[in-house]
Amino acid sequence: MADATDLGRVIEVLAALADPTRQILLGRLAVYGEATATVLARRASGEPAGRRPAPVRPAPGGPGGQPPGRPGAQVRGAPAALTDTAEWMNQVAAEWTARLLAIKHLAEEPGAE
């Protein structure tokens, strides 16, 4: 079972997923696979999902106007908290399956009436 810190993160994720907008975004991610927020917004509005060309204005901090050390605005992949929540849900499901199988075996034993 998850420790108290992990369970706190699971509770936060489940509370966040209660928000209808987040449910819609998660559903879109399930359909489209990995996508940035920009791509999800464009697909929701019917715009093409490809990147639009943008002028690059060099700034004193790094190439393309990005501050030094900033890897970029696109964030992809499942956050660790979401992955942890999915693993916790799978663990709980496995525990319930084991419990239900034990009850089934008890109920099906000869003389168990």
Structure explained in plain terms:
It is a single chain. The protein has one domain. It is mainly alpha-helical and 113 residues long. The chain has 4 helices and no strands.
Total count of strands: 0
* SSE pattern, N- to C-terminal: HHHH
How does the major sheet shape up? Answer: none
Helix fraction? Answer: 55-70%
End-to-end separation in angstroms reads: 34 Å
On the 0 to 100 scale, the average pLDDT is 75
- Note the total helix count: 4
Number of domains: 1
Task: Give a brief outline of the structure.
The chain has 113 residues and is mainly alpha-helical. It has one domain (1-49, 77-113).
What keyword list fits this structure?
mainly alpha; single chain; 113 residues; elongated
Show the helix and strand layout.
Elements: H1 4-16, H2 20-32, H3 37-45, H4 80-108
